[in-house]
Design brief:
binds zinc ion; NA-bd_OB-fold
Amino acid sequence: MSASGIRKITISNLSPNSQDFLIVGVIIAKRAPKSFYSRRDGNARGVWGFTLRDSPADYINVTAWGSPDYIEFLSSTYKVGDVVDITNTRVITRNNDDQFQPTVTSCMELVFNEDISQICLHDEDDWDGFTSLLHLPTKPPSNYLNLSDIKVHGKLLSGQHTNILVAVQRVGEVREISKEGKELKVLEVIVMDKTSAGFSVQIWDEDMIQRAIQWKPRYTVLFMSDIRVSWNTFKRCMCGTIGIKSIITENPSTREAKSLANYASSAPLQSQDIIDNMAANMPNPETIVNVMSCFSVIKQAFSGESSECFTALVYAVVHEFDLDGLQNVVNSKCNTCNETVPFTTCENSSCIMKGAKTLFNYNIRISLMDHTAKLINCRLPDNVATSVLGMQAESFVQLSESQRISLKWKYLLKKTASRLVILPATKEGSPCFSVVDLTLVTFQEYASKVLIY
Ligand SMILES: [Zn+2]
């Protein structure tokens, strides 16, 4: 067949009768190559699959067959993001319920054969038109589940494929483990969205691991289509796995992804910060009505039954409220260089030039006690401390010692209704307690509500 007889065609125009065509597209996903012995002639054969896209609406799976060496060569040569020319492939109708390939829009599939088909890098300067397709999710932009829904409805979804839109929170270390006699690599990536953080996604595919180690916490946003979610009995929470059906779109150019990127750039990433942020932004503290004793809060926080945070209304006496002690009650930071500064202004010369100001934030931990137990290290987030003390941290630092002492005695050893949000202990860390609301109560109310077990 002469090259002149070959015409260029798009994925949308393919039919089972298409012949002698050239197709140009960008590789948006690839699977690991496999080799096996043919049942027909006993010869070793290799197979490799990848997904090709040539327009926002059109993407297709390609299956390449050949000797194991050739297939290994192909799969190591071409990577996600490459724009390729493919000629002399066969077109077949796609199997609708294929569990071993990503879901695509084309009803066709391309079969590439070592003996008759050719692939090479596209040699024209229109790559940009194709590579911009790498930022379009392969599912409708709003077709994804929130991480909090996956956590809450976890066990119902276990074993299923779903889509998520997330920002990278942490990229772990690549670990090597042996499984069924094979040496495998695995990488855990922790992701977040606006509803939840700390969701673990495992990656077993080597090429995908190479992509993932480039991802940047807070900056990389990912649309993950068809990742498998399942209950992890070791971690006691829902986790995701990137598999052969998954397509990962990096930094999608959608409105939803831009909004998440904006959120992730400044979202809290440490457990205590996350829980403080939740406590500080809880819209209706009065909806926390489940009364718990200090002992039952501690018991649930250490039970290991779930890693999901919970809320509690605790009737307890404020046992420590160290407003005049040695601990730093107020943090002061320069608003320009973000360094901690003494109560004056930043001494950094460039900050002085820019007219930097000092920002004050409460940093208060209290203890709550009833006759069952004592809850130590409960954080009062800045806005909660402001409303409890009736003044901003900026004004607090101006108070005299005697004024601080009298403010302290407004709460110390007094009976309160304390609304808390609690992040249970995990394998990585201790539980975190954050106060959503702290209200003085009368002896009568306290006596009628406090739990005795
Ligand atoms: Zn400064």
